[in-house]
Specification:
- Helices cover 45% and strands 4% of the residues.
- The protein has helices spanning 8-15, 26-35, 40-52, 87-108, 117-121, 134-141, 150-166, 211-221, 224-237; strands at 63-65, 72-74, 122-123, 130-131.
- The strands form two sheets. The chain has a two-stranded antiparallel sheet. A two-stranded antiparallel ribbon has the order 3-4.
């Protein structure tokens, strides 16, 4: 083994090397001959010196760096023209080059963005925007302007008023006043005993409402508009009792 010191040019090139995980056998087999039989600590020192070029023979023109992983390897081909230490590194560097070419092409000649139907049919930049196509207008505005029947609108309004009165749909938080005396009082835990119910269920009692009670119930629960719509729906369904 011939040991030579690296020149300033080789040291500068070593600083610019980007090391990647070696996926092929070329760089691994080349480094194995320098660390075979060494302890882990000495092997790490040997690998560091190898990467810096301190353990290389300067006269061997077949020893070169892999263009992908960046580690030293020995080219055993007849023409000595390979640039990667293995087929895996060659495949990875081709993939990286194609990715870079696509990125450069997208940067220099980006694909035109396809306009949406709203952009093609809605003139929004004027003082009074308008639609060019009525069908596209209805497709884009039906979610924000959903039509409802008068009875549905009254139900929505009543629900909003009810929420405002009770403070919303969420249960209000209870604020417990704390003066400091509660901490001095002893905590009392109550154990609830489970009592098995041995009584038998009673008889089922069936009650019937008269016609006048049914009419009073419906008139107090629903509006005249809702009752009229229910009668109309029952007639359409074929109910002859209405």
């Amino acid at each position: 083994m011939i040991t030579t010191k690296t020149s300033k040019k080789q040291a500068a090139e070593t600083m610019k090397i980007v090391y990647r995980e070696p996926v092929g056998d070329g760089a691994i087999e080349f480094a194995r001959q320098f660390i075979e039989g060494l302890h882990r600590e000495f092997a790490l020192i040997a690998i560091k010196d190898l990467n810096e070029g301190n353990l290389l023979d300067g006269t061997d023109k077949r020893v070169k760096r892999c263009d992908y992983c960046g580690y030293w390897w020995r080219d055993e081909s007849s023409r000595n023209r390979k640039q990667t230490c293995s087929k895996e590194c060659k495949k990875n560097i081709k993939t990286m080059q194609r990715r870079q070419q696509r990125a450069d092409l997208e940067l220099l000649n980006p694909k035109p963005k396809k306009k949406t139907r709203r952009e093609n049919n809605y003139v929004w930049w004027l003082e009074y925007p308008f639609w060019l196509n009525e069908y596209e207008m209805l497709k884009n505005t039906w979610k924000n302007e959903v039509p409802h029947s008068p009875s549905k609108i009254s139900q929505i309004s009543a629900a909003k008023q009810r929420d405002e009165i009770i403070g919303g749909k969420r249960k209000p938080k209870a604020v417990v006043p704390y003066n400091g005396d509660e901490a001095e009082q002893p905590k009392i835990s109550i154990l609830h005993a489970k009592i098995k119910d041995k009584t038998k269920p009673g008889e089922v009692v069936t009650t019937y409402m008269s016609k006048g009670e049914i009419e009073n119930y419906f008139s107090s629960t629903y509006t005249e508009e809702q009752l009229r719509m229910e009668r109309f729906r029952a007639v359409l369904s074929g109910d002859k009792k209405v």
